[in-house]
Write a structure and sequence with these properties.
globular; 115 residues; 0% helix; mainly beta; 4-stranded antiparallel beta sheet
């Protein structure tokens, strides 16, 4: 099993920047991909970004050019650098790991962007 803990959320002004972190522990060597998802009130959880085991990176269209996903394998950490934040980015952000056919989720961290 894999345990994930997110941090770095908070209140940010429109146009600002914030960096989210995800610490992974457990059976980390079995992880095939890690990514970020987000869920706004009353809306379905949506995909934001993912990085695969071979280093391939994919983003949802609404964050391309503004968000950057990265990882530090030595520290078992996943990051999401968010720049030029918009009010529509307001959501609970979740770290996700895919391992041995299963999905694992962190507890989520709230990001609120004010205008």
């Amino acid at each position: 099993q894999v345990q994930l803990v997110e941090s770095g959320g908070g209140l940010v002004q429109q146009g600002g920047a914030q960096r989210l972190s995800c610490a992974a522990s457990g059976s980390i060597f079995s992880i095939n991909a890690m990514g970020w998802y987000r869920q706004a009130p009353g809306k379905q959880r949506e995909f934001v970004a993912i990085i695969t085991r071979d280093g391939s990176i994919y983003y949802t269209n609404s964050v391309k050019g503004r968000f950057t996903i990265s990882r530090d394998n030595a520290k078992n950490m996943l990051y999401l650098q968010m720049n030029n934040l918009k009010p529509d980015d307001t959501a609970v952000y979740y770290c996700n790991a895919q391992s041995s056919g299963s999905n694992y989720w962190g507890q989520g961290t709230q990001v609120t962007v004010s205008s």
